Every structure is written in structure tokens, then in C-alpha cells.
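I hope you will forgive my troubling you with a question about protein structure. The record follows directly beneath this note:
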Amino acid sequence: MSVSGLFKSTQCLKKTEFVTILSRLYVNILRMIPINEAKKIIDDNIVKTTLTEPVSLEDAFGRALAYDAKSDVDVPPFNRATMDGYAVVSSDGAGEYEVIEYVPAGVFPTKKLEKGYVTRIMTGAPVPEGADAVVQVEKTGGFVEVGEKAEIKASFKPGQNISPHGEDVKTGDTVLEAGSRITAPESATLATAGHDPVTVFKLPTVAILSTGDEVIEPSEKPVPGQIRNSNAYSLKSQAVDIGLNPDLIGVAHDTEEDLTAKIMEGAKRDFLLVSGGVSAGDRDMVPRILEKAGYKILLHKVAVKPGKPLVFGVAEGPRYVFGVPGNPVSGLVIFELFIKPAILKWMGFSNTKHFVVNAPLADGFKRKKADRVEYIPVQLEWTGEGFIAHRIKYHGSGHMHALTRANGLYKIPKGVTEVAPGHAGEVIVLKYGWR
């Protein structure tokens, strides 16, 4: 909008409304906020939830632990054999020794081992008193029955093939701290330490709203000028990937009434993600309606490519809104860079950082403008010694199909117009992109 057009369109507005428009124009037109500053604005305003709930250990995968979990037992709870073979007195050395007992896993030995004898033992079983090593069966003449002679072909040092009592964890030790993400190792640790159910932080409610008269649902056949609503499904998939169950609340038409109604509906959630309608065009009413809905808009343009017109706002509650560009790759990048860390912080996770590797760019890269940090999709390949990043065929922020072949985003720093082939750079790993 030109300056003369601005004055014509605001002649009937109150002074406060006119000042609001001027303030927004300053944010939109005069300044692109650097990525780190934008991240700080978001991080400073996201308040971690204090709401918790108990869930069964079986249902705790992906959740944030809400307390420091301590163990009620020593782990292992006894000296444990780490090999199938024979428990021995190591000073006996190689030779033939009578087997006095057989101890499988789950059975506690009843006989103390003395010099000149051995105990047949299985992996995970308690080591009998008196034994100070376990000889794996491969270094013996094989298994024999109790009362028979076992051939020990090698000598062993004290402690060999034994996991000592309490080696991993002692009673009262903190095994996981609050904020830990519960995945497979954490689930096993909590089970071993006796935690079921577990207390986790509650999940936020999330709504995803698409906007635009041109946007139709995937089940519909587009006519000239229409596009299918891909952004909502991309954003939902990214949200599901971090353990959420967002609501798709449809597509809002470019009218004051429809946008207001759907934004008011989405504003009931902890997080509202709005796709499209957030740039500085004449018809982009979303930021103004978000303010009417109670959100204070804290940023509206970030120095990143793709994804410059990012909106972030806070309402009473607190509740949060992110407005992402309508181009699908832009939405995906904005979610990865800004929305994902914000939601993870709200969810109580202690680690909200991206998974980043350093990798050389095999093919190099050139661009004309270098006023923004840029992220380009790449395919990471493991060479045996490290990763190498290969550029994929990519036509810009509307080319979502290109990302089906990508598993990383290679960072081109601000001010850099050319990356030489083989130059190493930071790559954000898209975990859902491994194929």
C-alpha cells in the first residue's frame, strides 16, 4: 500500500487505530528482525506450563517428565553375570573343575563357591558368593551337568564378565531429571527404578487455521486460481511429530466476518497456528483481527528465507499465536525454527534445541541477495567418516514436493552469497525426513 493510499484508507479511523496501523507498518516495512532476536522475543514470552497429570508408563512415550525420578533399588541388585559360562575363583586358573550348581537367570544361587569348583551360570543370573569372575562358555570345553567336570581353557582376572551390585544405579539416585523426554531408554530406566504411573506435564491444545479464498480442501478438485490446503497437513504432521494432537479448524475466507469467527474459535487454544494472510498485502487482515482477538503482536517480520512474514503474539492466559506464510516450505521452516522450540518449552522439556550436524555442501551454492539467513533443503549422506550434504532440486518456497527427498536444512549465513563445494556448514536434521 502506498503512503497516499494509507491516508485515504484511514481517514475514517480513530487516532488510536491509525497509530496502530502506523506501528504495524514500521514493523512490517522498516525492519526485519534477526533470527536470534526473534527467537529471544518468543522465548522470553513463552511460559512453561505447571499443569501435570499421571499417566501409565505404557502411555508416557514422548512426554516430558514433571519430577526428578529416583530409584528405589540398586541396579543391578546383585553381582550379575554378563556371559553364559562358568562362575569361577579366578586364582584357580585353567583346568578341570567340578560343577557344584546350575544358576539360570531368575534363580538365586544356594551354594558358596570355593576354590577347586565352578558354577554353571547364565547371562543375567546372580553370581554366587565366593566367585570373582565368569568364564564365557566359548573358552571352556562346553556345558556339562552338575557333578561333572567342566574344562576351563583360559585364566581370567577378578571381576571379568561380572556387573557389580549397584554399578549402574544406587538406591535413592536420581535416574532422570524433570524435563526429560521419555523415549525408549527413559521408559526402560523408569521401569527399572519402579515408576509406573509417572507424572508428566500436560499437553497444550493447538488449533491450525488456513486462510485464503483460493484455498480448498485436498478432497476437492481445484479450478484455475485455486490451490489445495497442504499447509494445514504439513503443520499438523510436524505437531504430531512432537507428541501433539492439533485440531484442524478449516479454511477462513478473506472476509472480516469469516476470519474473525475462525480466529476467535482458534484463540480458545493454548496455541493458534495461522497459515497465510500474514504478509503486508492489502488483503492481509489477519494481524489486525488477531489484535481484536486479544493478541499482542510482538513480531511480524524475520530476516530468514524462506519464511520472512512470521507473526508471533501473546494473549491473556497466556495463549499464543503464530502466523506463518502461505508458501508450504516457508511454513515448514518456520515451524522448525520458531514454533517447535516454543511449544517444547511450554510442554516442559529441558532440551528444546534442534538436532544439528556439521556437514560439507557437496555441490556449492550461489545467490544474488544475502540480506537474510537462508535454509536450503539437502539430503544428508553418511560416508562412514561423517555426513555430506547434497543439494536437491528445489524451485523455492512453494516447492514442498522437493522436501520429500530432503532430510536436512543447510544454513546459509547472512552476508554470504556463495558457498564453495565442500564447505562445511550447519545442517538442521529433519528427523521425520529420514528415508
